[in-house]
Design goal:
mainly alpha
């Protein structure tokens, strides 16, 4: 099966994220883009109006190589699983989760020295996926992992492949904040049904989401 056919089977948000990430990496590999133009710099965003950095810092996984392939595969698998199953026919809710998570991660970059937040976004999604599929068991190489611990295992493997731990911990923390206020807190008697991350009606209309 061709790569085009595989990508064509993915849900729309997943497909857009994967294609954008692959194009940025390919552009850097062909020297059409410089990684320095993709990283997050609040000074350049604010004073030079280089707004695109707020997006590209989530999409660039580094140069072509094993870490890039690994991260892209994890992104496609768990992002598509979330979008296609946990958020089935709820594209607006899924997109709002990503936007809220990205906003929280951008806020955290003000306190931590972070230039790319792509791995944090993956950890956010894998954490939420694991919580929404808590009874699932995943085969990771030669051992089985319960879904709620999957994000921690993937983060550990990424660290073993040369990555840092800070980005992963921040992604897991943001994923937990989203999951708690979206799936746990509204069910508590004291919450009175309050949802901190309620999807805006306008976004539902744009995405043609009826519920």
């Amino acid at each position: 099966m061709s790569l085009t056919a595989v990508m064509g089977q993915q849900p729309p948000v997943t497909r857009c994220l994967a294609v954008a990430s692959a194009l940025l990496t390919l552009g850097c590999a062909l020297d059409l883009l410089a990684p320095s133009t993709l990283l997050l710099s609040w000074q350049l965003v604010i004073y030079e109006m280089q707004i695109w950095r707020l997006v590209t810092c989530f999409l660039f996984f580094g140069p072509l190589g094993l870490p890039f392939v690994w991260n892209l595969c994890v992104l496609v698998h768990y992002c598509s699983s979330l979008e296609g199953i946990s958020f089935q026919r709820k594209t607006a809710d899924f997109l709002w989760m990503l936007l809220c998570g990205a906003g929280m991660l951008l806020l955290l970059t003000s306190f931590f020295n972070m230039y790319f937040v792509s791995s944090s976004l993956i950890d956010l999604m894998t954490y939420v996926w694991g919580r929404k599929n808590s009874s699932a068991r995943m085969q990771v190489f030669f051992f089985t992992v319960r879904a709620p611990y999957l994000a921690w295992v993937i983060a550990g493997m990424s660290v073993l492949m040369g990555g840092g731990v800070q980005d992963h911990l921040l992604g897991i923390a943001v994923g937990h904040v989203y999951y708690f206020f979206e799936d746990i807190y509204p069910l508590l008697p004291t919450s009175k049904g309050f949802r901190l991350f309620r999807t805006p009606t306008l976004l539902k209309w744009v995405c043609n989401q009826t519920d």
